[in-house]
Amino acid sequence: MDKRRRKQAKTSSGCSEEVSSIEWEFINMSEQEEDLICRMYKLVGDRWALIAGRIPGRKAEEIERFWIMRHGEVFASRRRELKRYNS
Q1: Average pLDDT over residues 1-22
Q2: Quick one: angle between helices 31-44 and 60-71, nearest 10?
Q3: Residue of 41, 45, 50, 70 with fewest CB within 10 Å of its CB?
């Protein structure tokens, strides 16, 4: 039971660290890369290193950051803001 608490504590601290990084630079992916990331995520979940191994020239951290920025609630308002600005 003690191990479970430690694991949860580590997970929650890492998560808050990611969410607070709102100043990340947007990662551009090709349509093929996005499609492959989505399909692989459905198959293997958040095993970013495994997904990155299927996309030449991409790192696991890059794939994870892309996924968080694309699908995370924190970045939803920022995406809408960028759409309005670009329109």
Answers
A1: 45
A2: 90
A3: 45
